Amino acid sequence: MKKVTNSTEETIALGRKIGASLHGGDVVTLTGDLGSGKTTFTKGIAQALGAEGMVTSPTFTLIQVHPIKKTGEQLAHIDTYRTESIEECINAGITDMLYNKKTICVIEWPSKVKTLLKKQPIRIELKNDGESHTITFPDDLLKETHITKKNPIAYWLFFIIMIMFYTLLYQAVTK
Ligand SMILES: Nc1ncnc2c1ncn2[C@@H]1O[C@H](COP(=O)(O)OP(=O)(O)OP(=O)(O)O)[C@@H](O)[C@H]1O
Ligand SMILES: [Mg+2]
Predict the structure, then answer these.
(1) Which ligand 1 atom is at minimum distance from the Cα of 40?
(2) Which terminus of the chain has a lower count of CB atoms within 10 Å, N or C?
(3) pTM of this prediction exceeds 0.90
């Protein structure tokens, strides 16, 4: 799916929508040129997850960890732009983040660490078109199916409650 955003706020809002369907163990790769909006988009993801701390463009930090109090998970914002080697990433603890079921990883400039990815990441592409920015992402990220995967128990509980509600309503009406 492709979405065009016409302001920083719109990109943050889209990041927020997509961030709402992410959960621990997810790895999101953000590709796009300098200034295409990768960090801006990550701000929205962080907001949706309730991740603490400011999402910034790290000058020297390769990985910034933002704890998520309400779920006990964490957001790892990884930016490999200034990295010299894959060893540097490993020494900084990238694999602890990538293979942790309680960590949502968002990676800017992912090509440098792609050999470390064990499963298919959620790929998001950003492009600065001058006036606007275009963001391309998998269709199912905005669909309910992805969200229900996050909490299947709540999903089924909702169905059971609805069935009970309509049964009671039917009994009351037919009395
Ligand atoms: N529609 C838009 N979407 C995203 N950013 C926008 C938009 N319009 C203007 N901007 C501005 O463009 C800049 C994007 O910078 P950002 O740091 O998010 O890019 P980046 O892809 O992370 O860059 P880098 O590769 O240097 O890390 C910000 O200053 C932001 O305010
Ligand atoms: Mg950035």
Answers:
(1) 18
(2) C
(3) no
